[in-house]
Amino acid sequence: MHRMRNVKVLATLGPASASEEKIRALFEAGADAFRLNMSHGTHEGVREMYERIRNVEAELGRPICVLADLQGPKLRVGEVAPGSELVAGASFRLSLKHGPGDSTAAELPHKEIFEAIEVGAALLLDDGKLRLEVVEAGEDYAVTRVVVGGPLSSNKGVNVPDAILPLPALTPKDRRDLDFALSLDVDWVALSFVQRPADVAEVKKIVAGRAFVMAKIEKPRALDQLDEIIEVADGIMVARGDLGVELPIEQVPGIQKSITRAGRRAGKPVVVATQMLESMIDAPVPTRAEVSDVANAVFEGADAVMLSGESAVGDFPVEAVAMMDRVAQSVEHDYQFREAIDAGRIEPETTTADAITLAARQVAETLKAAAIICYTASGSTGLRASRERPNVPILVLTPVTQTARRLAIAWGVHCVLTEDASSFLDMVIRASRVAEGEGFAVTGDRLVITAGVPFGSPGRTNILRIATVGTERGRGRD
Known about the structure:
The protein has 17 helices and 22 strands.
């Protein structure tokens, strides 16, 4: 089974999609990877979903990527009396310790916020529905002016767009969830609330290579050090939910493009997330605007597009995945798609591996090869090939199960588990057989093969070979 598209689909699992039957249906409809949201449910429930994914993987014989998404810090006001209404222009006081709140004051049990905010800073409540401006700031209180008023109820979220909060990268809950996710052997860990490169570095130190780490860009302050964050992270998620709260919403599309391009420059997978087909939580078809939103992410060259509530709690999870698949295929068959992808091509680094990968794309496109075949153990060669965004399929051959799973989220990559090549002849024969067996090539087709010599040595991509699929039991000839 291989997809008729390059962009990947990441589907969140939840009550609407937790059964093994539903997971299989989601994969068959087009899901390449599954997100386990650590903000909801119990560890036991997450374990059961993970095991069901692996059962489907074994049944269908295709590597499936699993991403565990950590919750991150949740900043909320305390208890508020029912019927409380903030009035525009009125004063509203926030205190570290306070009894039940009302229309004039409320508790904000987060010392870090008071340490970071200054006069003039904005505070956003309830996903930005309420907006406050700080007029007086103390070590345990802030007096604000209500800029945009409305009803306020207990435990509503707080966003602080104008400050870098002195919060740790991981909350105690996140640490417990991270240890649990790593014990399951998940492929990616998504880190929420990233503000600085050190946040990602801390998690990578804990993970110690047991999974790839994806930085969620959802805080405006992260944009100030975007390239540095991308350099440390293994992948990036454009988490448009909080970005759309903390920034003027009209700026988010441009920022999405900037993040996607930065990720492509670095050769790191980029996932575009949040409300892509939101209306399909309740409806069997999306709005035209949502279809355009998905299409734009595909045109930009994102590695993956993500479904959240649509597949986790919606009434039409399989239909939502199928719609994502159809939109992506339609875009990638549009002549303007290749123009857009080629316009975003990145200059290679001055390394042997990058030179080989660039040459592989150019040779494959010149010869109209059936596929580019990459032998890799760590996955780095597959990611380099993906960064080139070739107009031919990329087959990654790896002996490492975890590598095949991790790369299942990368643009254009089709991973196959196989033993490493032992010689040049074995390299060609194995590549030819896999390409034929997976439905990418037939006898007489050309293949462009990259590998490292000595064979079996990670990080040594240093050869390029052109082969023609032969007729004798898949044997290739130069």
